[in-house]
């Protein structure tokens, strides 16, 4: 059971009845599926991005979304144990944001993500597992939101098993600005201007890369808050429904092109009348103006 204060904060944000399209224990379709590993924002949980995860599953991806133990407010273990956060929480703004803590968090996430890929390999090779023979280890993407974006980029740079990355309004650290040859999507929420580290990263992306800025959005627009708290989360002129559709479509189109070898969707090549808030910067363009 959650402590009373945390339970109150949770219940004040989330509606009492939430309906999704998620199905418990589904049968995995035949064939080897591409995989997307997801790492959430700092102190948040893997369930905070259902609108995007269920869409990727609908498109044929197997999604493995991670709770990084000792970081989220509460993590429930399979045996029922509840493990609290060692770094504070975004509920009540009690989280620790010093450089040393964040460095440890990124390193811990890196280890978690590499361990997870090993476990996916094991499940794929296990007879009788629902994922046995259903995962394609040559087509694994990594995606993260906020600090998870920094962790995803670090995983892409350090673990060759990850073949592409999606950074959802990622917090790009200084040490992440290094040459990267794998496909990378920078999907930003409401940038008035690009950060210096984002500009540096863009200049060091040697593989296929794309940046999309959804004008008028805010940081939490990339999470389930966009539909759980409609009206409280900024979504630009398109409104919540079309913004949700845009996030799904840009992420799906990028992964389809770079993990599945599908033809490049026109969404990835320039402006779209369907999503007028989306500013698309292709790899032959400058992300930031030169001084």
The percentage of residues in β strands lies in 15-25%
Main sheet: strand order:
2-1-5-6-7-8-9
CATH architecture: 3-Layer(aba) Sandwich
Give me the CATH superfamily: Alpha/Beta hydrolase fold, catalytic domain
What is the element string, with H for helices and E for strands? HEHEEEHEHEEHEHHE
Report the count of strand segments.
9
Task: Determine Rg (CA atoms, Å).
Answer: 19 Å
What is the total domain count? 1
Q: Helix/strand/pairing class, anyone?
A: alpha/beta
Count of helices? Answer: 7
By CATH, the topology is Rossmann fold
CATH class (first level) name: Alpha Beta
Q: Identify the quaternary structure here.
A: single chain
Give the overall form: globular
Low-confidence parts: 1-14
Major β-sheet profile: 7 strands, mixed
Describe this structure in words.
By secondary structure, the protein is α/β, with parallel strands linked by helices. The protein has one domain (30-282): Rossmann fold (3-Layer(aba) Sandwich), CATH 3.40.50.1820. The protein is built from seven helices and nine strands, in the order αβαβββαβαββαβααβ. The strands form two sheets. It has a seven-stranded mixed beta sheet with strand order 2-1-5-6-7-8-9, with helices on both faces. A two-stranded antiparallel sheet has the order 3-4. α2 (50-58) crosses α7 (239-259). The protein is globular.
